[in-house]
Request: fold
Amino acid sequence: MKTKLVFALSAIGLFLALDSAYVYSRRPPAQGPVFTPAANPYQEGIYANGIIESLQTHGSNINIYPEVSGPITRVLVNEGATVRAGDPLLTIDDSVQRATTEQQRAQAEAALALLEELKAQPRPEALQVATAQVENARAGLKNTHDHLLKLEGAYAAAKAITLDELDLARDADKVAETNLAVVQRQYELTKAGAWSYDIKNQQMQYEALAKSAAASQALLAKYTIRAQSDGVVLSIQAAAGSYVSTQGAYGTYTEGFSPLVVMGSMQDDLEVRCYVDEILVHRLPDPAGITGKMFIRGTDISIPLTFQSVQPYISPKIELADERQERVDVRVLPVIFRFHKPKTMNLYPGQLVDVYIGQRQL
Reply:
């Protein structure tokens, strides 16, 4: 009885093992692609990676870097906002620079006040004092001169005084005469006003301080980041309280510096920058006949492109996803197309696309 039970259990175990082996050896049917891969629409088309950009006369997007460093105090616009040239976008803490500017402005104003004081000379009160001094010296001279005449008469008539007294009177008269000449010169100097060289020197000091204050004011203005042209704010890389420098804003995830603000144009047209591998450059059609088609990744949608220009400089290839240069020396040629943004589709600068470049039928 026990032997039959063992054989039965063994048979059941063998059956289960064979069934499990059969079930697990079956391969599930392959799932179809989520979207149809982009097919080359041209007979001899060239494939290239592309990145969507705002339409610009030169370059790609407008990258704004601060010219000063400091923490962000206010962000005045939102991403996606339409702005005009000169509109403020955000502000950087300017407390130290503002105090410096006020100090230099005060120094320039003090120099200007001193310059105006020199130009306004002679001061009426100073001229009145100089006039009084001349009158006083003239009266003193008359007094000593009259006294000398009396002594000379007495000495000549009866020698009623000594010769020493007469000499002292003559010396006093001479001192009074000299004193009158001194105060008269001082009056003329006061009346003439400030020396021209003093005015010129003060004028130059004022101009130097005024220019220093103007330069400080210009630097103060750079603590407000403004739009350089009309456009749309595509991204702002820092929030209030974040520290930024002339290298831009430090990215938490990329661990590198990037532009503080990125702006694009306001046109309904966008452009796509394609990077053609150097080994395919010789296959590019003549610029007069270049055409292209862009395929949106993850969809079956394609958009015709209009050739715009070729950037005639083969540069090292970059990884478009994070804009880092590859380690190997692979070089590419940028080819730029433009297209009209469909109203029924969301397309944004920075989006990666697939592009095929072909020959337009002439």
Observations:
- The chain is about 40% helix and 25% strand.
- Residues 111 and 206 are 5 Å apart (CA to CA).
- Residues 99-118+199-220 form one domain.
